Amino acid sequence: MSERYDFLFKFLVIGSAGVGKSCVLHQLLNNKFNDDSTHTIGVEFGSRICNVGGKSIKLQIWDTAGQERFRSVTRSYYRGAAGAILCYDITRRDTFNSLTDWLTDAKTLASPNIVIVLCGNKKDLEAEREVTFLEASRFAQENEILFLETSAVTGENVEDSFNKCAKSILTRIEAGEIDPERMGSGIQYGDSALRQLRSTNRQRNVTPTIEDKCKCA
Ligand SMILES: Nc1nc2c(ncn2[C@@H]2O[C@H](COP(=O)(O)OP(=O)(O)OP(=O)(O)O)[C@@H](O)[C@H]2O)c(=O)[nH]1
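That's the small monomeric GTPase sequence above. Prediction below.
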């Protein structure tokens, strides 16, 4: 049976090597910690459906390698991403210090409108913390991105991070700030019937509302 969803969003998981990107994604997809994670080579892929704001959204998620030597490969996957989960490790200040570079890459290679959720991962390692919650939330505020601390071990806030990103994209679509039909928006409608509705409406010169679109999907 084919999956039914209202929208499909393309997401990236980015951040320095070893911050826990693959473990965060594994926790999201399998509800458990992968204690055998190795460095990602290039990119890996996963998908799942989440329900936010009364809509069903398929997340198509690209987990990128953080190691510098794969940067040219991973950069080629940024194009057309609607959202990014930007991870650092709360126990390693160097991973926090490189966030500005990751942000620049996301905005220039994906889209200036990309919705970014900052995840301070390894929240379970409180005793080894090097980056405070407060300074990270200030950084997020200054850069107008969302922020959560997560743990791929306990699962805390993992699902919330992806949901928060999806919710924010949805809100911006509904507010007319993001146009899903723009080339490279990283967003697709969920059903071919929608395209039919749009072309019918276009012939009638009617613009479908988001409600029409979702009813149809
Ligand atoms: N304590 C703790 N360890 C974690 C957490 N997330 C990941 N790890 C550990 O951190 C290490 C790196 O995790 P990965 O998920 O492979 O890191 P990555 O960011 O995908 O690394 P690259 O693929 O090289 O970019 C592994 O040893 C994990 O077991 C977490 O939330 N808490």
